[in-house]
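F.,

This is the one I mentioned.
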């Protein structure tokens, strides 16, 4: 008898949900209607001056920007010893436009990717999109061979946006 009831219940579950019947215990509390919807490719502003075409990557923990001419003031031999020191660098967008910047190195990140393992400097940068402006640690990397010179990771998206893959 119980097995028969389970079979009938399994047959009617899709029908019940299709009718839009509301079950409070099945509500998805994790959906936040205040989050902005972002497409996988967007335009971002760096420090309110540099415009970049960016790839949104929920698989990437951190944000990465195309940087060249990276020079640490009074550089030590190991990257970890340079944390807290001033670093000068030039960011370059997909159009080849360049902006020279200088920041304090906040940390060094170990990044694993298809090329292997590499270490990168992190610096605080203000990144903006659609009235969301955040200062986050961004890692500096030569992305010259990559289509997108800015890769936006979960650190920037956290609690404010959801990705719409159909856009």
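My design for it:
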């Amino acid at each position: 008898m119980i097995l028969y009831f389970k079979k009938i219940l399994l047959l009617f579950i899709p029908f019940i949900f299709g009718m839009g019947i509301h079950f409070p215990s099945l509500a998805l509390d994790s959906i936040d209607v205040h989050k902005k919807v972002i497409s996988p490719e967007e335009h971002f502003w760096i420090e309110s001056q540099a415009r970049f075409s960016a790839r949104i990557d929920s698989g990437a923990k951190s944000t990465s920007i195309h940087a060249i001419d990276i020079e640490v003031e009074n550089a030590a031999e190991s990257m970890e010893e340079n944390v807290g020191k001033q670093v000068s660098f030039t960011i370059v967008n997909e159009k080849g436009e360049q902006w020279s910047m200088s920041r304090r190195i906040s940390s060094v990140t170990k990044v694993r990717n298809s090329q292997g393992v590499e270490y990168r400097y992190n610096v605080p940068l203000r990144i903006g999109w659609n009235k969301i402006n955040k200062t986050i640690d961004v890692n500096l990397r030569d992305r010259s061979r990559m289509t997108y010179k800015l890769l936006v990771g979960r650190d920037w998206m956290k609690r404010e946006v959801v990705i719409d893959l159909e856009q």
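Confidence is low (pLDDT under 50) at residues 19-31.

Talk soon.
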